[in-house]
Amino acid sequence: MLYLWLKAFHIISIVCWFAGLFYLPRLFVYHAQSEDSVSKERFSLMERKLYRGIMGPAMIATLIFGGWLLYLAPGFLSQGWMHAKLTLVFLLIGYHHMCGAQVKRFARGENTRSHVFYRWFNEVPVLFLIAIVILVVVKPF
Q1: Does residue 96 have a known ligand-binding role?
Q2: 40 annotated binding-site participant
Q3: Among 41, 33, 46, 55, CA closest to 99
Q4: What is the pLDDT along the chain (141 residues), one digit of tens a residue?
Q5: pTM of the predicted structure, to 2 decimals
């Protein structure tokens, strides 16, 4: 029963984390398009609160619950799909931290990228989500 509760909280954490990963780059798009200082300050505040208040805790919860699940079912670590999933999660953590670095750049007024870049940057977590869900559900290898 503990395993199922952990799995439920792991999924909830993933949903919260991905909500932030989808929304923060969208804020970057709007921030890159803004021209007045009031809008830029508002977007910086929104980005910081989203990153620190939602995304960070959700990522940590995702990793804790996922690690706990692996502790309870270590046999998954011998399966290829889990190795691929964990690799993607590792890369997703890198993407998360890239977002954090960008939040800081925007806050300092040092953004050098256009809104078009962020529109493409915004699609990256979608690819991760698709791949991770397919690996977990289909277990292709």
Answers
A1: no
A2: no
A3: 55
A4: 999 999 999 999 999 999 999 999 999 999 999 999 999 999 999 999 999 999 999 999 999 999 999 999 999 999 999 999 999 999 999 999 999 999 999 999 999 999 999 999 999 999 999 999 999 999 998
A5: 0.95
